[in-house]
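Case study 2.
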Amino acid sequence: MSLEFGRHFSRRDCERLFDDSFSLPEGFMFGCANAPYQVEGGFNGHGEPLNNWVEFERSGRGEPSGEAIRFWTDYPQQLELAKGMGLNAFRMGIEWARVQPETSTTLMKEPAFDEGAIEAYSAMIAAIMKAGMEPIVTLQHFTHPYWLGLDPWLASADVESFRRYVEKMATAINGLLVAKHSARPVRYWITLNEPNGLAMLTYLARAFPRRRSGLKDTMLAWSNMIDAHCRAYDTIHRVYTENDWPEPMVSYNTIHIAQYGIDKVMIDLLNARRNGVERGDLEKYLLEGKRSWDGEIAKCPVTVKPAMGGRAIEKVMSKGIDRLVDPARFENGVKAIYSSETAEKLDYVAVDFYDPFARTMIKWPTLQDVREKRVNVNAEHWEWALNPVAMYHFLKADTINADGLPIFVVENGMSHKVRDGRVEQRRDGATRDKFLQSFVFEAMRALKDGVPLIGYLYWSMVDNYEWGSYEPRFGLFTVDRSREPVKISSVDAWGTNAAGAFAEIIGALKSGERSAIADAFTSDSF
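Prediction:
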């Protein structure tokens, strides 16, 4: 195995970047991110709230989520881990299926809200605030209640169900924070997690639960998600105005993919009216956005040799994706954008960065893959290429058509593979301390070069459930799943003190001491 990944900068590079002209903005957010279905536990079993993954779990096609990491009950102890690293932000989510629950697979009517579950979420958010961290609250992270069926994003009526859910959460949770916990309302909301990825993974790749599939349904679902975001954005702002609460910051987060037509196009659509673009001029506006985006993304270096045929496949995909840069394909979303009372639809740009290139996400099955019954042609989580300099260029590209909007990295992480209790070395030899040094370095370089970056969140603090499997391990802290309840370790899956590395980087940056910063970014031991 070739050990390919390591720090791409020297101590001298650190000294140049973190010179007297560099300063970390006051309030810059360092934190971790999670998702409720992936960490809470207590879904899809008998007598438990059911979400759209219940059929998958019960069919035996993947591991059941089970107790996950027990965040629903054990969050106070886990927030202590976050506090111990010096984090000042924490992204969590509300599971729609828990606050509007149904435990039967045969009852498909909209049930009442569970006020006890809503109170529990308000207590969780209050605990995050009390621990000195800014809560970034996601309202839909790839899951919805099973009573909606598997294809709610194909129906406008279900988009309105989502809006009602959002209104209830914004009103009830904030009301409890103020009245019961003597806290302030949530400031940062994420309406939908990676709608571009969700639409593609569900209806085009057929990797997520669904009844239907195909390009037409992919675009319909994505268009309806744009509509859903618009309704949620307007609803949250209206609720805050009616209650005389401070202005919220509302966004959705995109999964970065090096194709404008399945990434930046949604951000540009949502910013169109804010940018003074008339509906009839959308096509020209998007094409200009694509040219600018492509120019910046073309500067990304190649860090991993693509699989045989990878570039050719990517080129063919690119030509097909280019045809998606057409506002007519987002009819319901465009209608929602231009029929809203307000032009603004994003208060900040939220992004997730992993491996954005199709050429390196394509691979051919190995003998080991065949033995493990992995016969797909996509790279597994632990095989994703790590390209920190590319993240710099994506952050620069995020500012296109987004003048004045802050940029927030709300997910960035790497995975190890743990199978049958055995951890395997990554093929690039990467360790999480070097990962953090490299990617935070590039985030700080983007900040210094004018990107209005307000935060960086690592995915994830603790190993979690990755959509049918516990094999991918993203956590700064790993989990021993051989016992019940699961036990959280003090190191990551490879045995690296990843949390210590993150804590040292954060502490050094906050101190402003140049020698301490250089030490933190070049240290080989934590």
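The longest strand covers residues 249-255.
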